Fold this sequence. Notes:
This protein is of the alpha/beta class. The protein has two domains: about 5-50, no CATH class; about 65-240 and about 305-490, Alkaline Phosphatase, subunit A (3-Layer(aba) Sandwich). The chain has helices at about 5-20, 25-30, 35-55, 90, 95-100, 110, 170-180, 190-195, 255-275, 280-300, 310-315, 325-335, 365-385, 450-460; strands at about 75-85, 135, 140-145, 155-165, 205-210, 235-240, 340-345, 390-395, 400-405, 410-415, 420-425, 435, 435-440, 445, 450, 470-475, 475-480. It is globular, with a radius of gyration of 28 Å.
Amino acid sequence: MRKPxxxxxxxxxxxxxxxxxxxxxxxxxxxxxxGSIALAQLxxxxxxxxxxxxxxxxxxxxxxAPRPVHFPAKAKNVIFLFMAGGPSxxxxxxxxxxxxxxxxxxxxxxxxxxxxxxxxxxxxxxxxSKFKFGRYGQCGMELSELIPEHRKIVDEVCWLRxxxxxVFNHGPAKLFMNSGFQAPGRPSLGSWATYGLGxxxxxxxxxxxxxxxxxxxxxxxxxxxxxxLPTSYQGxxxxxxxxxxxxxxxxxxxxxxSERRFYDTVAALNQTRxxxxxxxxxxxxxxxxxxxxxxxxxxxxxxxxxxxxxxxxELYGAEPGKPxxxxxxxxxxxxxxxxxxxxxxxxxxxxxxxxxxxxxxxxLPEVSREIDRPSTALVLDLKRRGLLDDTLVxxxxxxxxxxxGEVRESVGRDHHVDAFTLWLAGGGVKAGYIHGQTDELGFGxxxxxxxxxxxxxxxxxxLGFDHERxxxxxxGRDFRLTDVHGRVAHEIFA
Length: 494
């Protein structure tokens, strides 16, 4: 009789083991056992329940109705003054004597290693600021001669001098500052705020955009888009003069009564379609028509700046009927007075590379002069009217400028992501407080670094939201403004 081979013996032993294995043993030893499946199901149900409890409850018929927050808010409105192009922190907010001393010399290789720039070729030299600086206020903040009016609010503002970002080209960097992501498609900060909070205005949009300067900001309307959020939460651009929105005024010969009948008929047709297809954007369209009808009165009244006192117009440097950043700052105050949740002002052009219309000698002083007085007036005006305590004012660009000069037709500065300055006022932040510090040449942050994601988390916290819980489910994933990042800067809170 042939002797069984070792391989045959192993197969027989395995077969016997399978026959001896009971169902209970199988389920106990199975890598994906019933217990694991049940536990996963329970955990998923718990997570789903948590998502449902955190979900923003929206009334489709009134998507901008005010809503509760996660915890008591310090701010209820936001005015974001966006300096499109990247203001030079080294010529406005940070005096660097060592940089002036070494101006014209090659920067240390240790500081340049691993750095990314948009246009520098590697042969540039250090560039000290030619503008005079002084220390002002009890906080001793450094300000250049280009923004003398800021001295009036130096102790009303929280100065963030340790800001960093990830993106060094304008369009993506503006998107990153406004939406937390460098490509189009994500909701903007203003959209997240109005999605979470709703609005206290019944006859104006919850999120309004105002523009000034020689052209619009790079990336355009994607900066105030609602992304995958319902379009009720996207920013609505207002023009700086006349009717804020084209075709808002009723045609000649059309009475309010007949127009009301028209809106009601269109709403009924849209409602019929909504009942058939259940597309939520149809409800957005119904709400948009109704808002347009109400805005025919409220928006025209909003734009009548001549209702303001001569003293207030002088404070801002505003001139009714002439579009300007000053007029827009005054309009921003009028908008938050009327309950608008988020107002964003874009002012160009801060991109001072050294080109024919973008140099440090002529154009930086010009654009600084355009924004200095109105920005200061907005903070002072909000404070005297009792609005600053619950209105958060943000002054920022998408990034800063390099300590090295960039040679074009004249010498300018390239984009810099590793250190820049912005300021906040009101809305629960410390007044007259300087947070963050950079090295003696302005290359990088040495203390108090805050990333754009941290800024967003902090803004949402001031508005009463845990940034990790303000989410929207889209394509099977819960999205949030800060993605998987963000630290709340509690140290800057009053």
